[in-house]
Design brief:
Length: 656
């Protein structure tokens, strides 16, 4: 796996593609590009998404392939085809993966041998997934030969190891061992110590499965020596456990005939046939030959006689061993049967006694349980009746309290609606605008505020501490403070207005006799002053920013890092700062609370977060303003899904 990641990085570096940018930056960049630049950016996005969102990555790489084909740019075509092959492989669409990889390999074969070697290795994996072992084997061998010609020993080692693995699947043990030994040599040469030791273990396992236990033992001993040499003690312990199994196989007296034994037996038969084919002549025939030929024939006859003698001795020895083993086995079976018989008799008596005891004990226990059950049931019925009466009483009380609470919340909603500014005032001033307010409960701690003085229009989106009824009453208090500061006291500079609002809240708490240190409530706010005549915007914010979109680019006016809350003498607070911005027609302005970005949802149940929120603003900013509101409503519902709403949500959008 490490090999493939490394090669893909090399592949894209060779083709001049950089991946230093974030996914969000690349997607924003894509909106303003076309042709060659757009295709390169699509390939970057596809590469970043390939392991996390394979389907989306495939969509980008397929779009890139279409453009690359129209441009007839073979570098981009080969990169796109390779990304398609990787995506199809991850999505288990092996035929499409095979076609794309073949297309990429055809281009790389004539232009870039290193990329060609990687692509044939990828084809080997694709064919392996389809159990097309022969095609897989051919591609890994092709990849190995190409890497060898390029003197790339490291990647040649991995291709050789894969070829050995496929040969093992194809039941070609000897060919598999040859490939593993090639990989072993290259791993040692390139310093891949763990891979080298792993290859020794793999070869040993093949020898063990084949029945050549001595060769298996030899390979594992080499692996142990290498692990000691490299100081890999953990690897040494694993190998020793495998070596114990092989040594048990070697010492087993009743070992079955293995594939290796069958091979040796076949070779011996062929040797016998060769000797028999020589047809040793009789002594009478030998006497008639010349002295030189007599020596040759006598030597042949001596060899055959010696061999026949050995065969006879081996047969006699084998029969004797089998006879001894059979006698020993019969004696053991006889002793075992006698012991089992005695055990069965003893167990039978014990079982009969146990049955009698269990029957008596069970009868007594059943009688006791019946009596206990009767008394418990009677007692439980009395307790249950009392609990049922209590539950009915509590249910009635809860229903009454719930009704009162619901009536109180409805009343709070009517009070909040009556006191806070009507949304129609915004529509009268800005025909292209919207307010999206979704309270967590019936009433909201988030509120919209509006006021107009001469040429100045004041607009605010505020988020008070808490939500529900407490948040709603805090919103009424803070709305009244804004009315007092801006309407009565004429603080028309947003930064000064927010400073004065903090001062007024502090005075209100002092006048009512509360301890300032105990009062934690306040609000976060984005406050705008817009002069439509001079086309000028002045903004100050407490934690909440303002976003302005012009020509599909988003500008952020950043807030002060503090809230509008109690001013304590010992606390040194950051001063509120105003930002001036020159407006143009069709500018779109957005102020909001943190309810939407902080909402949890999606597949991973995480927050929506601000970067995706800004990105969604940009994506929907081309829509008419009323359609954009619908888009936000639908997106919030889609993201939230079955999750609980965390906070009140408020978004205000204005088009100049």
């Amino acid at each position: 796996m490490k090999k493939k990641i490394l090669l893909i990085l090399i592949l894209y570096i060779i083709n001049g593609v950089s991946y230093g940018q974030s996914l969000l930056e690349l997607k924003e960049q894509l909106l303003s590009e076309s042709g060659l630049e757009k295709t390169q950016t699509q390939l970057k996005i596809a590469n970043l998404l390939i392991d996390t969102d394979t389907k989306e990555a495939l969509s980008y790489s397929q779009d890139a392939l279409k453009t690359a084909n129209s441009l007839k740019n073979t570098d981009l075509i080969s990169n796109a085809e390779l990304l398609n092959a990787r995506a199809f492989l991850l999505l288990q669409k092996y035929k499409q993966a095979e076609e794309s990889a073949k297309n990429a390999a055809t281009i790389f074969n004539g232009k870039n041998k290193k990329n060609y070697a990687f692509t044939t290795s990828l084809l080997g994996d694709i064919y392996l997934k389809q159990s097309a072992y022969s095609d897989s084997y051919i591609n890994f061998v092709n990849s190995y030969n190409t890497y060898i010609n390029l003197a790339d020993d490291k990647n040649a080692a991995y291709s050789a190891y894969s070829a050995g693995n496929i040969a093992e699947f194809m039941k070609k043990q000897e060919e598999s061992i040859e490939w593993y030994k090639k990989a072993q040599t290259l791993f040692e040469k390139t310093g891949r110590q763990k891979d080298e030791i792993k290859t020794y273990i793999t070869i040993g396992s093949i020898y063990n499965n084949y029945g050549n236990y001595l060769a298996a033992e030899d390979e594992l001993k080499k692996a142990i020596n290498k692990s000691i040499k490299y100081g890999l003690t953990s690897e040494q312990q694993k190998i020793e456990s495998k070596l114990d199994i092989i040594q048990k196989n070697i010492s087993s007296k009743e070992r079955i005939t293995t594939s290796y034994d069958k091979k040796i037996e076949t070779e011996q038969k062929e040797y016998v046939q060769n000797i028999e084919n020589q047809k040793a002549k009789s002594l009478v025939e030998i006497e008639k030959l010349s002295t030189e030929n007599q020596l040759i024939e006598l030597k042949i006859k001596a060899q055959q006689d010696d061999y026949n003698k050995k065969i006879l001795e081996e047969q006699i020895e084998r029969l004797k061993i089998e006879e001894d083993l059979q006698k020993e086995k019969t004696a053991k079976e006889k002793i075992t049967l006698e012991l089992q018989n005695e055990k069965l008799i003893s167990e039978k008596k014990s079982i009969e006694n146990q049955r009698l005891f269990i029957m008596l004990a069970s009868l007594l226990l059943i009688t006791i349980l019946i009596l206990i059950g009767f008394f418990i049931k009677r007692k439980n019925n009395i307790i249950l009746q009392k609990k049922n009466n209590e539950i009915i009483k509590q249910k009635n009380e809860i229903e009454i309290k719930t009704k009162h609470i619901s009536q109180s919340i409805d009343y709070a909603k009517r009070v909040q609606t009556a006191i806070l500014p009507a949304w129609k005032k915004l529509e009268e001033t800005f025909s292209n605008s919207f307010i999206y307010l979704r309270p967590k409960d019936k009433v909201s701690g988030d509120f919209f505020w509006f006021h107009k003085i001469n040429d100045f229009v004041f607009i605010a989106a505020a988020d008070c501490t808490g939500h529900g009824v407490p948040g709603a009453f805090m919103s009424i208090i803070m709305s009244n403070i804004l009315d007092k500061v801006v309407k009565e006291q004429k603080y028309i500079n947003p930064d000064k207005a927010l400073e004065q609002a903090s001062f007024e809240l502090t005075n209100m708490v002092i006048e009512r006799g509360y301890n300032l240190a105990d009062f934690k409530d306040g609000m976060d706010i984005a406050l705008l002053r817009i002069n439509l005549k001079e086309m000028e915007l002045v903004y100050a914010g407490a934690h909440n920013p303002t976003y302005i979109i012009r020509n599909n680019r988003l500008t952020e006016l950043k807030p002060s890092k503090r809230s509008v809350n109690i001013i304590l003498p010992e606390n040194k607070l950051e001063s509120f700062v105003s930002h001036n911005y020159k407006l143009e027609k069709t500018d779109k302005i957005y102020i909001f609370s943190d309810g939407f970005p902080d909402q949890k949802g999606g597949e991973k149940k995480t927050k929506f977060y601000y970067p995706p929120f800004r990105n969604y603003l940009l994506m929907t900013s081309q829509l008419p303003i009323e359609k954009q509101k619908e888009a936000f409503i639908n997106k919030f519902e889609e993201w939230k899904g079955d999750e609980e709403q965390i906070d009140d949500v408020l978004i205000v959008g204005i088009e100049i």
